[in-house]
Write a structure and sequence with these properties.
The chain has one domain: MetI-like fold. The protein is 74% helix and 1% strand.
Length: 293
C-alpha cells in the first residue's frame, strides 16, 4: 500500500475523471464559444468564418453600447450605494442584543428565493393599478407611476429589486466578520469613551476591510452578470431601457437566432468583467495592502 501511494500515477488515476469532466463541461464549451464568436452562425446552417466582424459590429451597435451604460449604472449603484447600506445594516444588526438570529434570517431570506419568484412578486408590487407602491402614492395624492413601463423608472425598479434580493447575502458575510472581532477590543474602546459611531467607524470597519473588499468584488461581478431579473421583469424593455449586456446577448442569440454575434458579445462581457476585477485588485486592494504594510 505504501509503494502504491508513492506512485504519482495512482493519484493521476483518481484525478483524471474530474479533469475529464472539467474539460468536457467547461474548457471545451469555452473554446467552441470563442470559435463561434468569429463566425456568422444561426445555430442551424454552416458556420462561416468572418474574423472580427462580430466584435466590430458590437461596438458600432448603439443598443449594445446602451446596455454597457446600463451595466455601469448597476455597477456604480452596487458599489457606491448598495455596499455602504450593507455595512450600515450589518453594524446595526450586530449591535442588537435580542432577536439577532431572527434579523439575520429575515435579511438572508430573499437571497435563497428563485429569481422568477422575486420577479413576479415585485412585478405585483410595481403594478400600476393594484401595486403596493402606487396604492401608497395614491394616499398622498400622487398619480400612479408605470414603474416597469416608463423608461425613466424601469432601470431604477430593477436596481431596487436586485438589491433587495442580494443585500442579505452580503450582510450575512460582513456580519460574520463583525461578530468574529474579539469583544475585548470594543469594550476597551468603550471604556476610553468612544461612542457607538466612533467605534463602528474607527474600529469595526477597519478590522473588516478584507471582507468588505470581497463584498465589493462580488458586487462588481454580480453587476456584470445581472440578467435573470431583467429577463423575468422587463425582458430588456421598455425600448431597451433595462437592457444589460447579458440580456442583450441572450435576446440576440436565442430570440433572434444570431448565435455567432451573441457568442461574440459573451466574449466581450467576459473580457470586460476580467478587466474590471483586475483593475480593482491592482488599484484598490493592493494599494490598501501597501498602505497597511
Amino acid at each position: 500500500m505504501r509503494s502504491t501511494l508513492k506512485n504519482p500515477y495512482v493519484y493521476m488515476l483518481f484525478v483524471l475523471p474530474t479533469i475529464a469532466l472539467y474539460f468536457l463541461f467547461f474548457i471545451y464549451p469555452m473554446l467552441t464559444s470563442v470559435f463561434y464568436g468569429f463566425t456568422n452562425w444561426n445555430g442551424l446552417d454552416t458556420k462561416d468564418f468572418i474574423g472580427f466582424d462580430n466584435f466590430v459590429a458590437a461596438f458600432k451597435d448603439a443598443d449594445f453600447r446602451n446596455s454597457i451604460l446600463n451595466n455601469l449604472i448597476i455597477l456604480l449603484f452596487s458599489c457606491c450605494i448598495q455596499v455602504p447600506l450593507i455595512i450600515v445594516f450589518s453594524l446595526l444588526i450586530s449591535s442588537v442584543k435580542r432577536f439577532q438570529g431572527f434579523y439575520k434570517t429575515t435579511v438572508f431570506m430573499p437571497s435563497i428565493l428563485s429569481t422568477s419568484v422575486i420577479g413576479i412578486l415585485w412585478g405585483y408590487i410595481y403594478d400600476s393599478d393594484v401595486g403596493l407602491l402606487n396604492n401608497i402614492l395614491k394616499i398622498f395624492g400622487i398619480d400612479p407611476i408605470y414603474w416597469l413601463a416608463d423608461t425613466k423608472w424601469a432601470l431604477f425598479s430593477i436596481l431596487v429589486t436586485n438589491a433587495w434580493q442580494w443585500m442579505g447575502f452580503y450582510i450575512v458575510l460582513i456580519l460574520a466578520a463583525i461578530l468574529a472581532i474579539p469583544k475585548d477590543i470594543d469594550e476597551a474602546a468603550m471604556i476610553d469613551g468612544a461612542t457607538g459611531v466612533q467605534r463602528a467607524w474607527y474600529l469595526t470597519v477597519p478590522l473588516i476591510k478584507p471582507i468588505i473588499n470581497v463584498v465589493i468584488m462580488l458586487s462588481i461581478a454580480g453587476a456584470l452578470r445581472v440578467v435573470d431579473i431583467v429577463l423575468v421583469m422587463t425582458g430588456g424593455g421598455p425600448a431597451g431601457a433595462t437592457d444589460v449586456m447579458a440580456s442583450y446577448m441572450v435576446n440576440k442569440a436565442i430570440k433572434y437566432g444570431d448565435y455567432g454575434y451573441g457568442t461574440a458579445l459573451s466574449i466581450i462581457i467576459f473580457i470586460f468583467a476580467l478587466i474590471l476585477t483586475a483593475l480593482y485588485q491592482i488599484l484598490i486592494v493592493r494599494r490598501q495592502e501597501r498602505v497597511e504594510y
